[in-house]
């Protein structure tokens, strides 16, 4: 058990494309899905088809969680948990990039979060993975996709 965090994109697709992609996805073995990490065809709550693609994954990066929680609250959300639908990133990458590069993500504690993630900065490639998320997110936004951060513990 512990904090698992995801960066992902979504994009709208046609119903026909959804059906084709769903059949392809369902035909893959669990090992294939694990290895290839393909986009997942899904329906949103209104029944509209889209693709969900994971672009980043972190394990117990508590400082990133603290930053995202603060951002969530700044956006006027009622609490700091956004595990179900994810947090839309919009244009927050420009602010996030400076904070990440300056190693100024806030120290954040939690029962499932582990010790301070900056203790493992080099071993876990946290700086690189944070910057990769920002880069991939910016590309996705330019392509008209939506970018989200989500977590679970």
Summarize the structure.
This protein is an alpha+beta fold and 153 residues long. The chain is built from 5 helices and 5 strands; from the N terminus they run E-H-H-E-E-H-E-H-H-E. The protein has helices at residues 15-27, 30-36, 62-74, 93-101, 126-142, and strands at residues 4-12, 40-43, 49-59, 87-88, 146-152.
Key structural traits:
22% strand, alpha+beta, five-stranded antiparallel sheet
Task: Provide a descriptive summary of the structure in words.
39% of the residues lie in helices and 22% in strands. The chain has 153 residues and is an alpha+beta fold. The chain has a 5-stranded antiparallel sheet with strand order 2-3-1-5-4. Helix 4 (93-101) packs antiparallel against helix 5. The chain is globular and about 45 Å long. The relative contact order is 0.25.
Low-confidence stretches: none
Percent helix, as a range, is: 25-40%
Overall geometric form: globular
- Number of DSSP-assigned strands: 5
Mind telling me the C-alpha Rg? 16 Å
* Main sheet record: 5 strands, antiparallel
- The order of strands across the largest sheet is 2-3-1-5-4
* Mean pLDDT rating: 86
Helical stretch count? 5
For the termini, the CA-CA separation is 7 Å
Indicate the structural class: alpha+beta
Layout of helices and strands, plus pairs?
Blueprint: E1 4-12, H1 15-27, H2 30-36, E2 40-43, E3 49-59, H3 62-74, E4 87-88, H4 93-101, H5 126-142, E5 146-152
Antiparallel strand pairs: 1-3, 1-5, 2-3, 4-5
Helix pairs in contact: 4-5
């Amino acid at each position: 058990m512990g904090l698992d965090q995801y960066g992902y994109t979504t994009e709208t697709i046609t119903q026909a494309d959804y059906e084709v992609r769903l059949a392809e996805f369902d035909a893959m073995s669990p090992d294939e899905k694990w290895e290839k990490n393909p986009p997942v065809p899904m329906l949103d709550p209104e029944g509209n088809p889209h693709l969900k693609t994971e672009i980043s994954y972190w394990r117990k990066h508590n400082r990133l969680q603290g930053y995202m929680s603060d951002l969530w609250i700044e956006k006027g959300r009622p609490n700091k948990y956004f595990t179900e639908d994810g947090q839309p990133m919009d244009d927050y990458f420009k602010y996030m990039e400076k904070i990440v590069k300056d190693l100024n993500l806030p120290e954040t504690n939690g029962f499932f979060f582990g010790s301070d993630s900056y203790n493992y900065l080099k071993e876990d490639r946290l700086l690189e993975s944070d910057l990769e998320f920002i880069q991939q997110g910016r590309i996705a936004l330019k392509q008209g996709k939506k970018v989200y951060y989500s977590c679970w513990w």
